[in-house]
Amino acid sequence: MLSLFIAAAGFAVDVAYIQLTQTQLRAATDSAAQAGAEALAEGKSAAEVRTAVKNIAAKNMVAGKGLLIDDANIVLGRAAAGASGKYSFVGGGTPLNAVRVNGLRTSGSASGSVSTMLGRFMGTDSFDASKVATAAIEERDIIVVVDRSGSMNWGGVRHPITGRRITRLEGLKYAVGVFRKVVDETPSVEQIGLVSYSHNVRIDADLDTNYTKFDRKMASMRATGATDIGLGIKDAVKALKSMRRRRHASPVIIVMTDGRHNRRYDPVKETRRARDDDELAGVVVHAVTFSSGADRRRMRLVANEGGGKYLHADDTDDLVRSFDELARTAGSVLIE
């Protein structure tokens, strides 16, 4: 009976160890795949993506050892979401937007099989474990909210290329043009829309993967009136909740101002309402201020409340860098 009890105890210990190993392997493989997708989002080469995958995998312990992954077990490809929001993955393709990682602790793999704790006394000295994870660059539905109040007609900034003096609005148009170009070049499919505000608000362009109307409305924009930042955020929420929004895409609001809020709708409260809206689960609100007169304290609170980035620009070069950075903020999503 004592022998049977010992055998049963050994079996129970090894079953628990196998489950722990599988959990660790899943976490390591998921993290490695996401690191690869994020490297793709940053525009890194295939070799750099594989290096990122292997580096993150090696930092994750699986049965007491960092997970080692061969290049053959890292597949770069294309992921696309169907009408149901479910993704499919195919190796290869252009542009690459997803990474599949095969995490192995098997005999013959780089990390080898996993030794049992007590099973060796019953003739089973190791076991194999494997997990597959696929991560894609997240697709975003982005509403860009821009300030067209009267102060945007003020000068004092220079064109980033020609160096000539321009108005803040002209500088904004150039920076948003850079943003649009970067978004267009990202490997994922992005929808963008445009909202502009002063003391009133307009949804200038609905969410779309065709940016023609967005470009036209941005180019023809004129500045006049007071500054109701909260009203801009309020209509950005309305634009995001339109029929055009995709269920698998991450909702994003980028709100920009050159001045101080001086009208009805408090931007911090409107951001809080957006985050609490069940239809916009996971919405992120980024904030950008432009000029020394902008309300930096309030807009930093908007970004904090919105779970996003706060960026300040003193000149057009800074504004271009800010919008360029926000265009590249796509994260990763596990699809397998």
Describe this structure in words.
This protein has 336 residues and is α/β, with parallel strands linked by helices. The protein has 2 domains: 2-137, no CATH class; 140-334, von Willebrand factor, type A domain (Rossmann fold, 3-Layer(aba) Sandwich). The protein has helices spanning 2-41, 46-58, 168-185, 212-219, 229-240, 267-276, 296-306, 316-327; strands spanning 61-62, 65-66, 74-81, 87-91, 98-105, 114-115, 126-127, 129-137, 140-147, 157-158, 165-166, 191-197, 201-208, 250-257, 284-290, 307-313, 332-334. The chain is elongated, with a radius of gyration of 25 Å. The two termini are 46 Å apart. The relative contact order is 0.13.
Topology:
Layout (H helix, E strand, L loop, with lengths): L1 H40 L4 H13 L2 E2 L2 E2 L7 E8 L5 E5 L6 E8 L8 E2 L10 E2 L1 E9 L2 E8 L9 E2 L6 E2 L1 H18 L5 E7 L3 E8 L3 H8 L9 H12 L9 E8 L9 H10 L7 E7 L5 H11 E7 L2 H12 L4 E3 L2
Helix pairs in contact: 1-2, 3-8, 5-6, 6-7
